[in-house]
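user: can you give me the structure for this one chain? tokens are fine.
assistant: on it. calling the predictor now.
[tool input]
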Amino acid sequence: MTATDADVICELEKLRFDTLVERNLRTFTDLAHPDLAYTHSSGTLETLDSFVAKCWSAYYVYHRIDHLIEHVTVVGDTAVVIGEMRVDMTADGIRRELANRSLGVWARADGAWRLLAHQATAKR
């Protein structure tokens, strides 16, 4: 049985959130596209370099991320993931519990899927 692109994306989504909780930032960087746009629920926009630097410095510490994928749409070499996230994290020294809607965009480049964009929106 061959995995579909949607199956592969689901596995990559799990891996990317696991890498953040485990602080395995080298693997996270390998999963990300160099032009990553990482938008937090606060509206803060990060590049790959700025986001990873803040994770390395413990500005962002992810204690737990529960991510529920609701739908994956693959069109050509682009995949869009719609879901929900519950996040237990510390940001700038302040512990936070977040409930967000999430959007992930993956692009296939040189035969490999890379995270191109992340958007979190606070649930109200």
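assistant: here you go. The first strand starts at residue 32 and ends at 39. Helices lie at 5-21, 25-31, 48-56.
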